[in-house]
Design brief:
Helices cover 42% and strands 23% of the residues. It has 224 residues and is an alpha/beta fold.
C-alpha cells in the first residue's frame, strides 16, 4: 500500500511517514500544493493524507482538482481548524475524512485503515498455511508462537503473503517496500528475506520463501 503525505510542516510529514512505514506502508511526501497535485494525478497511491494549509494551492483546491480529473483516491484531510464550517468545506471539496490537529498516532492509523478498508484495500490479517501476519501489530504468528517484525521485514512479508504462490520480483519489493527514490539495492532484499526465513523457522511456520532465478520470490506451504 502506497500513501502520499502532502504536508508543509516537514517534521510532521516525516513523523507521519515514519509511523506509516513502521506499519508496512510505503509512504512518500510532498511539501506544497502544486507538488501534491502533480503526485496525486499519477494515480499510483492508495491514499492521500492532505494538509489544508499549504503553500501555493491549498488542500481544498488540490482535492477539488483531483476530483475534477476523476481521481478517486481516498483523501484524509488534516487541519488545525476544527470548526464545523471548515470540515464541511473540506468534505464538499471531495475529501473522504477530516482529522483535526493535533491528533494521536492511533487515531491517524485508525482513519487510514478505515479509508483503505472502504476501498477494499485493507484487511486486519493475512493468512497462509498455519501462519498469520497481523497488519496492525506487525507480528507474525503460528499457533501460540509469535515474533515481531521490523518495518522492512513486515513490508517484504506483506508483499509475499499478498502474492501467495505468485512470484514477486526483487525490483518490485525494492519499489514497494523501500520506495522508488531509495538507494537500496537487490542485496538489501536478499538480506531481509534471510531474516524472515529465520523468523518463520523460529515460530514453527510451514511457510517457505522460495527463490527462483530472474523471477524473484514466492511462498510455498510445506506438504502442499
Amino acid at each position: 500500500m502506497r500513501i502520499l503525505i502532502v504536508e508543509d510542516e516537514r517534521l510532521l510529514a516525516e513523523t507521519v511517514k515514519t509511523l506509516l512505514e513502521s506499519r508496512g506502508f510505503t509512504a512518500e511526501t510532498a511539501c506544497d500544493g502544486e507538488s501534491g497535485l502533480a503526485y496525486g494525478e499519477l494515480g499510483i497511491y492508495d491514499l492521500i493524507i492532505l494538509d489544508v494549509m499549504l503553500p501555493g494551492l491549498d488542500g481544498r483546491q488540490v482535492v477539488r482538482r483531483l476530483r475534477e480529473k476523476r481521481c478517486g483516491t481516498p483523501v484524509l484531510m488534516l487541519t488545525a481548524r476544527s470548526g464545523l464550517e471548515d470540515r464541511v468545506e473540506g468534505l464538499n471539496a471531495g475529501a473522504d475524512y477530516y482529522l483535526a490537529k493535533p491528533f494521536d498516532a492511533r487515531e491517524l492509523l485508525a482513519c487510514v485503515n478505515a479509508l483503505l478498508r472502504r476501498q477494499g484495500g485493507q484487511v486486519d490479517e493475512l493468512r497462509m498455511g498455519n501462519t498469520s501476519l497481523d497488519l496492525a501489530a506487525g507480528t507474525l504468528s503460528c499457533g501460540e508462537a509469535q515474533v515481531r517484525l521490523s518495518a522492512k521485514e513486515f513490508g517484504v512479508m506483506r508483499q509475499l503473503m499478498q502474492s501467495g504462490a505468485r512470484h514477486v520480483s526483487k525490483e518490485s519489493l525494492l519499489e514497494k517496500v523501500w520506495g522508488y527514490d531509495s538507494n537500496a539495492v537487490e542485496n538489501h532484499v536478499e538480506v531481509y528475506v534471510g531474516f524472515l526465513r529465520k523468523k518463520l523457522r523460529s515460530i514453527g511456520s510451514d511457510l517457505r520463501i522460495e527463490a527462483v532465478r530472474r523471477l524473484g520470490y514466492h511462498l510455498e506451504v510445506d506438504g502442499e
